[in-house]
Design a protein that fits this description.
heterotetramer; A: alpha/beta; eight-stranded parallel β-sheet; four-stranded antiparallel β-sheet; about 30% helix; B: about 280 residues; alpha/beta; seven-stranded antiparallel β-sheet; about 30% strand; globular; binds flavin-adenine dinucleotide; binds flavin mononucleotide; binds FE2/S2 (inorganic) cluster
Chain lengths: ~300, ~280, ~300, ~280
């Protein structure tokens, strides 16, 4: 029997498969039991009430989609009173994704979540930092360090920091998050993208630009996971385009300890279950006892990138 | 929007009951998939289990095959057109409009595709109602058709006002007739579909006591008309709405629309809180 | 008859369609005549001799590909003596793509190309700048300004600067290039990505990471073209995943004046011709007299991105 | 690598002559596509024009259809297995290994797919040669088969040593026989395919004057053996090589391999400078 357990800091997950924030809700419990998942991750919540972005909020593009949901939120109390209970009946640890427009308000919402029943905090720092001309915290090491530092002081819960791929140097941002006290990294959020309807000449999203997700972004995020794994020691949770068991394995090999499945769940609601079962079969076929042995097992020794050669 | 809305709570299983799985992703075998006219296809799938519990107004999120030209990625929401548990069949009536439905149109008997459902709340019939008026146009008829049998089963009289550009394009007429409905076909080309005329028809039905409730789908113009007339004469109503979707399960918040509600305007998810909404709360789209 | 001509600085192209550097060579003249193209763009050449990267150099990923060709180069003289003549028999203006590991050597190679028969220089500054720990020039505004400034002094030829998408803020890099004297921008090069063979556990590229191109990257590069178009006044040449006429139109609407077709030519060798013909038909159908009217014609007025809403 | 290499310049049109279009992307109709054994399919396409000029050793870059499971994006290089200008047909023999060939295997008569070619240089036959030895294995046989007729046309005697795991898997035996070749089948299961035995066979042929040149494809081991024997006995040879490709036209430099050359080791593009190379310059892969 293959051991699927993985450790993310001080919590142990029964398997490395969990949903990506915002692509999942208690509604999926109508299809299967969350007891099968390594963890559950909530849609990002904010302190203030938000309506989210104008419609259309979704556009299909090739083997992926653009979304501009934004973060419709009914606030922390609504979450604690109405949403948390939905998850309590499952054994999977509850990870609460939070966001805020300033480092201070970020710390504030995390303080409100120092309550029983929450296994970890996932800080979605891919959102605009209004104190820095709206650039996402995670776009720069400095603003990342600033917010993670405050979050670390605000909570004793395991702190997962979710990075944005919309940066030129994800490695330094990752190091900054680790050095400021992150227990794990989630790599990564959606890639800023756009699509235009050539018949109407109008952007296909109500907010013009949106986040690109799905299989199409996998090679990019996988590269970022690989780069981060060279730089940080804390566990990395890979997230980007994972649809099949092989996708999950690819992320583990690149250095991830666990994976999040997002958009794939929209196309195959049972995708997460399939990956959990697939990982067991894959490890059996490869005579691997523990799925954790796959983490960072990419056979890249002796290979190198020639600095002199142009890379994109 | 975590609890389902007031709309016909009887018909609709509240999310809270989710512990019991009430939605399934079914790999369904294609029994037939034939063109009904220049624009529409009729798809029949062999399915069992939860799919057979689908009610009028509910929908499935359907996987659409790739073709040489198109690689549809997301699923496509389609109202259940008919369910025949006895034969283990579920049917859809769809209009070929883009990548996904072009892909669907390539399905042949013997192929199979995945359908997630039943999804959404579906239409509700108040035990007190004796006569209802169903007003539909275009794709909307696919959504409204099963309401004919559902009403018949409960001994409710149906008047169906079916609208289209031309007579040739009106669909499901025979289906409504077979279900015992009074059918009025109105078309653009003979002008009978214009608002004033439809309003005249409606008022006539109301005055002759044949309109305990309105049901509509497929036309913003008709929805607004029914809403106004319904408000004037205090006739309740339900409208099935559409919005672009991804998950169909209430997870992604792609499919929101704005609605009037007692406590001011609010956003609701068409896939979860709908697709059927009270006419009185629906807003123009 | 639709007018397909577009102006890139002081040169006028008969149509807005040209190949992307490195995805094209005189070999394609075995399939069709380059006289049909708005311009031809050479594979990037360097002053020094280079062998390129180890194999495998290509990996198919979804609706796109990874490449790690690098820049095999036989130097400038070989180019002038053996490659340039191949293009002289065609009417399409010749754009020479160049690269170098330092700003000084960049200027040097451009000086060697101040010869008749070259219509413009395309500076591929997506390559590693060995004076700045191997980060590509185009990843930062400062190093971009430095190299473009030197290039501007080194040549009187129209100077096109090709940006990298592997940066957090393509807009400021674009502005830096314009302010340092670029006549046009090419947006953009490939996106750094990776793929791992889950059977062998080995990276699927000999140099581990490589450049992602093809339809899958279109929504990302299109967004960058749109962002750059808000910031710079010089013409933008869109490049990323363009396969069909609609793709080209989408880029023009977003703000591009011309487009480059790359990977699509590998899959449909006649893709560029199809786009040229398709643009005429598209404009006819839309009653547009000049294709140049499409540039920046996206109907985004009244739409805006809510700063408070999280975007990826 | 801009001018084509020395290899049989006669067979190969130098790029410089490009002004005359000699490569075409042809949308070809599938005449048949049938499994020949557990692993291989035989595809016949109706095509005309330049495709009909393809020579032994040249190849086409073939568009592979999408399936439910696979969405192959790049084209796949396939050697021309046979060209019948009279019937306007070109044939391919391919092994189903992954996404692209799985897609190819779904093609049915009446479907069509795009083929770019003819590409590459092809085999060359020196007018001075009277007897050649063709040694192939697996997929390599598809590439070597047309060489049998090409040699026959020029009155050159062919000895074909065909290798495979088992007798059942040896292909094209009849084809070589029909072309008048002497056929030796060697297999792993009866040990006849082992290097020493093959070397014995080769030396025998050389001594009996039946080996003016060697031709091989499909096995690195056999290539190295022929190279060594050829060097010892001064027998020229040609090998058809494979490498991952994108464009097939010499544009992308994806397909390079290293070769020995008079002026030291050098990189060549398999698609443009090959796929056929002098045995003496080929290196292990
Ligand atoms: C609850 C519900 C029930 C529906 N029932 C039916 C039905 O029974 N028969 C029928 O013909 N159509 C029905 N529709 C509309 C149908 O979903 C769309 O026509 C279909 O998604 C178009 O997809 P496409 O790829 O062919 O078109 P495209 O225009 O290429 O679609 C592009 C994207 O927009 C989305 N989209 C386009 N039009 C609509 C629309 N009207 N509503 C929602 N999403 C849309 C698609 O899902 C896809 O993601 C229903 C829609 C909803 C929301
Ligand atoms: C000049 C030439 C002629 C060939 N002729 C034949 C033939 O006649 N019959 C035949 O069965 N095969 C032939 N091959 C090999 C054939 O191209 C591959 O088997 C095929 O590309 C595999 O694609 P796939 O998607 O099924 O496999 P996958 O392994 O999924 O392919 C993944 C990628 O690797 C590439 N690839 C995988 N194997 C090879 C290979 N051996 N050579 C080149 N690229 C490869 C594919 O093109 C694709 O881009 C030839 C190869 C070359 C270069
Ligand atoms: C509809 C949608 C909504 C999302 N909402 C959130 C969110 O609220 N918070 C967050 O951190 N990420 C959000 N994401 C990003 C996903 O969590 C994930 O990082 C991204 O989609 C990449 O993974 P995928 O390719 O598997 O979908 C959302 C993605 C989608 C598609
Ligand atoms: C095989 C290959 C080689 C490339 N070589 C170069 C190069 O030498 N110089 C350069 O500036 N860009 C090079 N590129 C990048 C392309 O010019 C283009 O910017 C990128 O591929 C995106 O466009 P596409 O999606 O249409 O291919 C190369 C791309 C590929 C696929
Ligand atoms: S479609 Fe996802 S919430 Fe409605
Ligand atoms: S495959 Fe492109 S150069 Fe050979």
């Amino acid at each position: 029997m293959v051991d699927l357990r993985v450790k993310i800091g001080r919590i142990t997950l029964k398997n490395p498969v969990m949903p990506a924030s915002g692509t999942f809700s208690e509604g999926l419990a109508r299809v299967f039991s969350f007891d099968h998942l390594g963890a559950v991750v909530t849609k990002t919540i904010t302190a203030e009430l938000r309506g989210g972005n104008p419609t259309p909020r979704v556009a299909e593009v090739g083997q992926g989609m653009l979304n501009s949901i934004g973060i419709p939120s009914k606030g922390v109390l609504n979450f604690i009173d109405h949403i948390m209970p939905e998850y309590q009946r499952f054994s999977a640890p509850l990870v609460v994704s939070v966001s805020a427009p300033t480092a201070e308000s970020f710390a504030e919402i995390v303080r409100q979540l120092n309550i029983p029943g929450i296994a970890a905090i996932e800080a979605n720092i891919s959102c605009p930092n209004i104190e820095e001309d709206g650039k996402a915290f995670a776009m720069r090491a400095k603003s990342t360090a600033a917010v993670v530092d405050q979050l670390r002081k605000a909570t004793a819960l395991p702190l997962w920091v979710k990075l944005t791929p919309n940066t030129g140097d994800v490695g330094v941002v990752a190091r900054a998050a680790q050095d400021s006290g992150a227990d794990a990294l989630v790599v990564a959020n959606t890639i800023l993208a756009m699509s235009i309807d050539t018949e109407t000449f109008r952007p296909r999203l109500g907010s013009i630009m949106g986040g690109y997700s799905g299989p199409a972004i996998k090679p990019i995020i996988l590269r970022m996971v690989y780069q981060c794994a060279q730089i940080v020691d804390i566990p990395i949770i890979g997230c980007g385009g994972i649809t099949t068991t092989e996708d999950a394995v690819e992320y583990l090999l690149a250095g991830a300890t666990a994976v999040q499945v997002g958009t794939a769940t929209f196309v195959r609601p049972n995708a997460m279950l399939d990956v959990v079962e697939g990982l067991t079969r894959f490890c059996e076929r490869k005579n691997i006892d523990r799925v954790s042995e796959l983490t960072g097992a990419v056979r890249d020794r002796g290979m190198h990138v020639d600095k002199l050669e142009a890379l994109p | 929007m975590l609890s389902t809305p007031a709309v016909n709570a009887d018909e609709n299983e509240p999310i809270r009951a989710a512990a019991a799985f009430d939605v399934a992703d079914t790999q369904a075998l294609v029994t037939s998939n034939a063109a009904v006219n220049a624009e529409y296809f009729h798809l029949t799938l062999a399915a069992a289990g939860l799919a057979m519990t689908a009610k009028a107004g509910q929908f499935f999120n359907i996987a659409c095959p790739a073709t040489d030209k198109d690689l549809p990625y997301l699923r496509r929401p389609m109202s259940v057109y008919r369910v025949v548990p006895a034969k283990g069949e579920v049917e859809f009536l769809y209009k070929v409009t883009g990548a996904g439905t072009r892909g669907l149109a390539t399905l042949r008997a013997g192929d199979s595709t995945a359908i997630l459902g039943p999804l959404g709340n579906g239409f509700g019939l108040d035990p007190g109602w004796k006569n209802i008026v169903v007003v539909g146009r275009g794709v909307g008829l696919a959504t409204l058709a099963p309401l004919a049998e559902m009403a018949a089963e409960r001994g409710i009289e149906v008047t169906a006002i079916l609208s289209a550009r031309t007579r040739a394009l009106v669909m499901s007429v025979q289906r409504f007739i077979d279900a015992g409905a009074q059918v009025e076909v109105i078309t653009d080309d003979d002008g009978s579909s214009d608002p004033d005329n439809v309003e005249r028809l409606l008022v006539g039905l109301i005055e002759s006591g044949r309109a305990d409730a309105f049901f509509t789908c497929g036309s913003n113009r008709l929805m607004l008309l029914l809403k106004r007339v319904g408000a004037t004469f205090q006739i309740p109503g339900q409208v099935a709405m559409e919005q672009q979707m991804a998950c169909g399960l209430g997870m992604c918040f792609c499919c929101v629309r704005n609605f009037d509600s007692s406590h001011g305007p609010e956003q609701r998810r068409v896939c979860l809180d709908g697709p059927v909404f009270p006419l009185s709360e629906a807003l123009s789209w």
